[in-house]
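Q&A log
Question type: sequence-to-structure
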Amino acid sequence: MDQTTDVNRFSQGQGLDDNLGLSLWVALFAFFALFLLPAEKVQAADSGYTVTETVETFTYEIVEPEHQTGWTSAPAEASYGPFRVISADTVEMSGTVDSYSPALFQKMLQHYPGIKRIEMIDCDGSIDEEANLNLARQIRRAGISTHVPSRGSVRSGAVELFLAGVRHTADKGAEFVVHSWMDEDGREANDYPPNDPVHDEYLNYYREMGVPADKARAFYALTNSVPFAGQLKLSRTDLARFQLVH
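Response status: OK
Response body:
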C-alpha cells in the first residue's frame, strides 16, 4: 500500500465522520423541536399567567314618549268624517253630516286642540238634523270661526253650521243654497201649523247663534218658501239683509 492510497482512505473516513456528525445534529434538532419546545409552551401555560378577555356590555332602556296633545300628536291632513285637518289651526269641511259627525268632531279636537277655523268647501247638509244642530253647537262652544271661500258651497243644513262660527265670513263667489227641511215622516216645514213647537227648534237656534229675532223669523220663512226638493240660492244682498255674515 502506497502513501497515496492511505491518504484517500483517510479522506474518505474523514468525510464519513463529517456526514455522521451532521446527521446527528439534524436528529438532535428535530428531537428538540418535537419534544422540548412543546414542553416549554406547556410550562409557560402552567406558569401562573392568566390571559383575561374583557367584554364590555351596554344596557339600553327603551322609553315610550309621553302623550302630547296638539299638532304633533296626529298626522297632518288627518280626516274625521267630513273634516280634514290641513294645518295646526285650520280644517276643511266637505261632504255630509251624519249621526257620527259630532263624535268625530270631538275626537278631532282632542288630537288638534288648536283648531280655530273651518273652511267650508263643499257642504251639502245633513242626513241627521239633530246631529247637525249638535255639531253646530260644538263648533260655537269651541270658539271656532267658519269661512266659505270663493267657489265654496254650503247648502241646506250646512248653512246652520256656517252660522255656528264665532265669526262667519264668506268670499265673493261663495254659494249659499237653502230649502225647506223634511222630517223622517216625509213632512216638510209648511206641513205643520205656524204655531207648532217644531218650528221653535230652528228659530231658537238662529237666535242662539246671534241672529236677531226678527231676522231669524224672516230667514226661516224664506228657507221654507222652497220645497225640500227645490233650491234657493241666496245673494250677497240676502246674506247682508239677514245678518248671516260678519
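Response note: Strands lie at 79-80, 83-85, 90-97, 117-126, 145-148, 153-155, 168-170, 175-178, 232-233.
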